[in-house]
Amino acid sequence: MLLVLGPPSLPIYGSYWFVLLCNYKYIYKSFDTLARWYNTKLLGLHLGPLPTVVACDLDTVKEIFARPEFNGKLDCYISQARAMGVTLGLFFTDSDLWIEQRRFTLRHLRDYGFARRSVLQEENVRQEVMDLLALLNSSKGREDYDVFHDGCALLPQLFCPGIINCLWSVLAGDRFPPEAHKKLRQVADASFHFVKDVEPTGGALVLTPWLRHFGKKGFGSDGLVKGTGYVTGFFR
């Protein structure tokens, strides 16, 4: 039997308090600190009610990625909220459902020019570049404070509409006009908030999902909840 070393478990949140204590902002650094403290390559701990093992060296991580039994993903409140109450897509699914979603996605994306040369997609990219140059050269664009500030163009906000439009043309066969670019930047900003607030453990709303019944704001997940609501509202 393999003995996995790690911090002790406390009520409700398990070892999560020790993870936050080591490095509240960068959880991956916290895992590294704990692994060095316990002198182990496999860190064992409880994240909320979940028994967890964290691989802390390159060889172990590579081995885990190469073994299918470690491909499972946690079905949690956050993943369901992102997909309108169910578990869908490629990021939050596993097993047969993931295989089905992957095949469906690749098959239909190729129909719209993904991973192959397409005159239509090249024209869409050319049009996005032209719209970007027009924005940079127009005096009206300089008044758009979502894109410009103190005479400087803001990144990545400047590129977000073009990137979303190229993806949208593949997914839906259509693109948004320049008049709708501000809306696309807001969608991108909401997605940034979602990614920024999701840390490797999932945070309080994943470890103790019953907290959502006391209000979805707070608990270190304001950006996550706001970003999820905005993106799902846009697609609806």
TrEMBL record:
> Which named protein is this?
(California timema) hypothetical protein
* Keywords (A to Z) from UniProt: Heme, Iron, Metal-binding, Monooxygenase, Oxidoreductase
Q: Which organism is it from?
A: Timema californicum
Q: Name one GO biological process term.
A: xenobiotic metabolic process
Give the Gene Ontology MF terms in alphabetical order.
heme binding; iron ion binding; oxidoreductase activity, acting on paired donors, with incorporation or reduction of molecular oxygen, reduced flavin or flavoprotein as one donor, and incorporation of one atom of oxygen; steroid hydroxylase activity
Can you quote a single GO CC term?
A: cytoplasm
Entry similarity comment = Belongs to the cytochrome P450 family.
The organism sits in which domain of life? Eukaryota
- What Pfam family does this protein match (any one)? p450
Cite the InterPro entries for this sequence: Cyt_P450 (IPR001128), Cyt_P450_sf (IPR036396), Cytochrome_P450_fam2 (IPR050182)
What cofactor does this protein call for?
A: heme
